[in-house]
Amino acid sequence: MKGYIDKYHLDSIFPAEFMPKLDVVEVKKNTYLTHQSSSFTHLYILVEGKIKVEFYNINGKFSVFAFATPLFLIGDLELFHSQGDNIINTVFAQERSVLLSIPLETVRIFGLTDPGFLQFVCKQLSNKLFESSLFRTGIFLTVEDKLKRFLYYHSKRNGTVLVLEKREDLASVLGVSVRQLNRAIKSLNEKGIIVSKNKKVEIIDYDFLKKDIEFQFDAK
């Protein structure tokens, strides 16, 4: 645990009262950490691995909220949500993942009055709102533009190679159909921006992608 605290400087984020209550949770690949509507008892912070955040609407429609890598906070939405002590999203480990857990009672007693922790939570919520809005704002945004935005911001955090286990998941994040996503991937392949083979998508013309994304935002 100390290795993760030192690596991410968590002692500067968490109040001192959190430290004795922290626990290490390991989640195996292709297993669930939380289930939607289950009891909300702990806050989790991803320190190793990769997870997928899923949501099922009341009509049964499935959607993917995010693909997450460290540092990613789980439970920040629930902490301030009015629906009570229930988990909002299902969290699935796409690879072996390690998280630190903090009891909800400890968070409410010590975290909600700590400026450093609250600033961290606000940054997490802000990042989630920004990334969610990237692909769903702008009525004239094409599927190809949505894909380029996703690849660009994913590469800034995780490098230029994306392992795509299921195209349905990425299509859900972008708010498009799998058929539309496949056409966009093919188009970017043909333009020499990416190389897509099996489950791997690699950006080979990052400079063009960066300039194109910056142009989209400058044009607004």
Automatic annotation (TrEMBL):
Domain (HTH crp-type) spans: 141-207
Q: Which GO terms describe its biological process?
A: regulation of DNA-templated transcription
Tell me the keywords, alphabetical order: DNA-binding, Transcription, Transcription regulation
**PROSITE patterns this protein is in?**
CNMP_BINDING_3 (PS50042), HTH_CRP_2 (PS51063)
Pfam family for this entry, one: cNMP_binding
Give GO terms: molecular function aspect only. Answer: DNA binding
Cyclic nucleotide-binding domain spans which residues?
A: 10-108
The protein's name is: cAMP-binding protein
Q: Which lineage do the record's taxonomy fields give for this organism? A: Bacteria, Pseudomonadati, Pseudomonadota, Gammaproteobacteria, Enterobacterales
